[in-house]
Write a structure and sequence with these properties.
elongated; mainly alpha
Amino acid sequence: MRYPNVYGIDMPTREELIACGRTEAEIAREIGCDELIYQDLEALREDVRSVNRKVVNFEDSCFSGVYVTGDVTREYLDGVEARRRDGAKMAEMEAASAQLDLGLELVE
């Protein structure tokens, strides 16, 4: 996956996706494999159509970066990701402040 899903599925941000902004060779190096081969996206679509010709359109934005609603912009994704990062920071701070202090001293 190279792009986040913005239609209700909790997925990593673009910067957290290993394939985002990397070539196949860079991804292969990152995960420690000799070679990386992806199925061609159009071939995947055709495979699905071969099972059911009634399927015409696909929501494959996490692979293609094309969002079916047509209104997902880079600015929108930037805003979603900023809120996600801010939310993660707040959760970390809340978790740290929620630790119970029993007032015990460590004795060595």
